Amino acid sequence: EDQVTQSPEALRLQEGESSSLNCSYTVSGLRGLFWYRQDPGKGPEFLFTLYSAGEEKEKERLKATLTKKESFLHITAPKPEDSATYLCAVNTGFQKLVFGTGTRLLVSP
Amino acid sequence: GAVVSQHPSRVICKSGTSVKIECRSLDFQATTMFWYRQFPKQSLMLMATSNEGSKATYEQGVEKDKFLINHASLTLSTLTVTSAHPEDSSFYICSAPDSGYTDTQYFGPGTRLTVL
To answer: What is the least distance, in Å, from the CA of A80 to any CA of chain B?
Structure first.
């Protein structure tokens, strides 16, 4: 069964304190791993797509990396506006996504 | 990125009534769209795949007679929750993949359904 597990469940950081979020996955055949940001009461906002081990993508303070079993979302010098839930999802085929339960990030000034 | 809209953003209805939610791709065509449900503090669960010109396909455990899906055009899919009950109260979100190589899914803003 395809599974996605995210850790930690919640993370509290001070502004400027860098950290990483983890996404472990078990799928029969990876057809893409996606990172999304979700603010309360809103739909997920696309951040990155990764396809193969060793791939990295960067956007402002965020950097996503991928290995054969997991992906990391690195947040460098976060700001309060980075506070959100970060979701990881894998494409299990036919464009269907299986999501992890997310990491709730709170960045304090 | 591509833009997906949903209407309404929130709806409150009485138990036993039906509610229709629209999902539109604004700047691209989508032969396939997806409907998800999200309960508080939980992640998104795929309910069904909406296919333009053919029947929707439903995930295991999702009642097709309760959640009617119609993909009327290349930019519009609708989800109708029939005979709604309080346990159907949830956040419903649609998505559509871009037409390019990446298959990236773009999500709508969601619809908050409350059944009294």
So the answer is: 21
pLDDT over threshold 80, residue B101: no
B112–chain A Cβ distance below 8 A for any pair: yes
Where is pLDDT greater, at B29 or A89? A89
Contact state of A44 with B49 under an 8 Å Cβ cutoff: no
Is B102 in Cβ contact with A87 (below 8 Å)?
no
Helix, coil or strand: residue B13: strand
Q: Which residue of B has its CA nearest to A50?
A: B102
> Across all residues in chain A, what is the average pLDDT?
95
